[in-house]
């Protein structure tokens, strides 16, 4: 099932169904328990009433029974023999004895047993017979059963109460209370639930479907617009943003922000390809021209110029390759390096610089950083190349501690960088003095590469005005852990 609306409707319906079923079972259980408690009370009252009359030595035939149809009574003696049943009782179960015919020898008014004469003689002797028995005060035993009264069988709740007659005979009175009202009430409630549950679930499913449809309508608009953007490849388009402040509005805003970043990235990539093609075209065209001239007139071959163009192509290809690796998210190495030693090593390899470089670093200080030796050396080399192109007479490199990191600062005494151009110079293929940069072999990639490498090492690269009047490039890296 691929529809969110359908899944939401089915899920909500199932949750409500489970909740309603659980609540319905609980209600039925409580209702049944309360009704059974009422039946227990009625049965106990009826049983104790009969037990009280037996304790007063009332003859079985004289027992006063209220509503014998609703409260059938069965009395048994100590041996479980039935000594009395209420009028119209034809069958009974659940009392421990299914008999409904009193045993004659145990019935009231029956011929006394042989031992009764002696008792009478004793009475004549003045010992006297107890005038009152007793009814057990213990909680009665309850049981479920059936009884047939006047040909009608029904379910009953029976209470068993013991009574002792004045003659010392222990009798058990079973009195029943009908469960028809309880069953009818439970069945009525169950029927109402079974009837109303499907209707309620249908309402829940319909409401959930409509609410979800309304809630997801902006999502459908976002989907359609994204499909149109994909088909047209027009990244300038944006998805509609609903006026609400919910998660869908946040999704639309995030989608538009993503499209903005993607559009900028694609545009930057297009400019990069165009600029790279332009930069590559010039040295390739120059080299081709020199080779064609040399083919026709070998004596006119400008070998140094051809070598210079080849070197320029090699440097440009290396820069483009490094930028491609950086854009691909290549992680820098984690080697432990000493910044002062790295600067000294890079300076020692530069033999053709037109201006000597002064290094300022404490001899006994250790400025350790983590990173890729090749990439960090590339940053220092690019900053020195930039200073050599713009300095007049002096270039200074300072290595010092700066807060929680290490600062490598390259200063020159050239014209400096105008304040409004200090961020633009870090863009790719940007040259403030295009003619001189091209003659010197620069393609406008050195500072862009340097800042990308600094950022990927957790550092920064900024430009300021140097005390000498020129530019001061500050390369900051966090100290090694």
Describe this structure in words.
The protein is an alpha+beta fold. The chain has 3 domains: 4-186; 235-330, Orthogonal Bundle (Helix Hairpins); 332-478, Heat Shock Protein 90. The chain is 49% helix and 18% strand. The protein contains 9 helices and 14 strands. Strands 1, 2, 3, 4, 5, 6 and 7 form a 7-stranded antiparallel beta sheet that branches. A 5-stranded mixed beta sheet has the order 9-11-12-14-13. A two-stranded antiparallel ribbon has the order 8-10. A hairpin with a 2-residue loop joins β5 (141-149) and β6. α6 packs across α7 (373-390). Mean pLDDT is 84; it is low at 107-130 and 434-439.
Question: What is the count of distinct domains?
Answer: 3
Sheet having the most strands: 7 strands, antiparallel
Average pLDDT for all residues = 84
Helix content: 40-55%
Q: Which residue ranges are poorly predicted, with pLDDT under 50 across at least 5 consecutive positions?
A: 107-130, 434-439
SSE class: alpha+beta
Shape: rod-shaped
Walk me through the topology:
Layout: H1 4-55, E1 73-76, E2 82-85, E3 89-93, H2 115-124, E4 134-135, E5 141-149, E6 152-164, E7 170-178, H3 180-232, H4 247-296, H5 303-327, E8 335-338, H6 339-348, E9 357-360, E10 368-371, H7 373-390, E11 395-402, E12 405-412, H8 434-439, H9 446-456, E13 460-465, E14 471-478
Structure at a glance:
With 481 residues, the chain is α+β, with helices and mostly antiparallel strands. It has helices at 4-55, 115-124, 180-232, 247-296, 303-327, 339-348, 373-390, 434-439, 446-456, and strands spanning 73-76, 82-85, 89-93, 134-135, 141-149, 152-164, 170-178, 335-338, 357-360, 368-371, 395-402, 405-412, 460-465, 471-478.
